[in-house]
Amino acid sequence: MPVTDNRTSNRNLKEPAATNTIADDVLRLIDQVRAIDVDLANVLSAIATKIDATALVPYQVLSGRNAANGYAGLNALGQVETSALPSSIAGGLNYKGTWNAALNSPAIPAASTANKGWFYKVAVDGATLISGISDWKVQDWIVSNGTSWDKIDNTELPNDVDGIIDASADAKALLLAANYAAMKTLLGIALASTTDVLTGTDAAKYLTSDALAALWESNTTDITSGATIPIGEGHYFNLTTSTAAITAFAITTDRAGREFWVKFNTARVLTHNATNLEIVEGAKSILTAAGDYALIQSKGSGNVRVLKYVRASGAAVVDTGPTLATEIATTSGTSHDFTGIPAGTKRITVMFDKVSTTGGTSAMIVQVGDSGGIENTGYESGALQVAVLFTASTSGFIVTSAMSDAFFYSGSVVLTLQDASNTWTQAGNILQNGNNMHLSAGVKALSATLDRLRITTASGADTFDAGSVNISYE
């Protein structure tokens, strides 16, 4: 019986047939297996020539997905799952968009390790309670720390200044309008006064550059005051008109260390006083002259010191010689006064040049005084006309024992400060017409500092009719 040769439809491989004997089909299948073996060997050989067989070795099995020493799997979006990331990466900031804090939109999920690092920026103010926080302002951030949600406050603006509640909107409008005057009012900022600046005790007020410059700009008003010079708030001043001795400077807002300049336009005495008007150079009074300058510094409590004195003449301030006053003609009058003798004077020389009197024979005397006036009592003084007449006086330092209309008198009398109690001593030599001498000596204690001197006669009635007198002091 013939063998039926059945074949597969795709690869034309031999397969059994119902009409064949088992022996026939077994033989046919053995032939087919051998043919398949040859075909498979050829296929494998062809594959080997196309690829590197070693590339098929390092593959990962499914059991290694997200496992230790395995590999990180991808989610449905092709992204590495957060559970496979280290904490240092998983906790990084991840911007999720804006958030409406009034409507909780989008809804903030419960904090977890899965959303650690997520943050939203507040776009609408609101009071949604998240992790115990309900104060949310535009520009704030809400950030997950993996356990709870934190707030990063980006709205720390001056919304409450000196009791002004929530002024940020008004302040913003003022800033945009450059309305600085209204801003100062809104924020409670005040301008410092000159007094505020000089006392230096207010830390809240502001100072303009113009106000600061005014502290040293020149004062346009000349000062004509006498003994006490009112200098207001300082700067630079012209002292004019007055010739009265200066004994003090009055500062409106006094503060130790403040300095100011003055210019002198008249001759007057700048009176040294170690406490309230200390003259540093020489520690003695200064006779000013037009054009001189002085730099004065406050010591506080109304006291000042003259730090520097500049003479217009260029002469030295400290003069070791005596100061010469203005000579007075003794051609009339019953007395002649020298005033303005400065404090600190320790020696006075009274000089006479052919002095004469008429109307009597009263002795010529020198009287001294202080701020209370000339004193005419308390002197112990005497004069001796050599080999002729000795005359004593308690009303003044006697210069001559007597005088005569027929004679002229020339010479000097020296008054010397003996001690701090204002006691003065006298020593004098007067020549009478070139043929006689009057020797004098005496002592007098004043009630205060000497500042004046008078030449007169013991009677106070005789009239001077010739010569001149002058003094020098040192």
In short:
The chain is mostly beta strands and 474 residues long. The chain contains six helices and 29 strands. The radius of gyration is 58 Å and the shape is rod-shaped.
How does this model look, in words?
The chain is mainly beta. It has 6 helices and 29 strands. The chain has helices at residues 22-50, 87-90, 168-177, 180-187, 194-199, 209-213; strands spanning 94-100, 118-124, 141-144, 149-152, 160-161, 164-165, 228-232, 236-239, 248-251, 259-264, 269-270, 277-279, 286-287, 293-300, 303-310, 323-324, 328-329, 335-339, 347-358, 364-370, 373-374, 380-385, 389-393, 397-398, 409-417, 423-432, 436-445, 452-457, 463-473. The strands form 7 sheets. Strands 16, 17, 19, 22, 23, 25, 26, 27 and 29 form a 9-stranded antiparallel beta sheet that branches. A 5-stranded mixed beta sheet has the order 8-10-14-15-12, with no helix packed on it. Strand 20 and strand 21 form a beta hairpin. The longest helix has 29 residues, at 22-50.
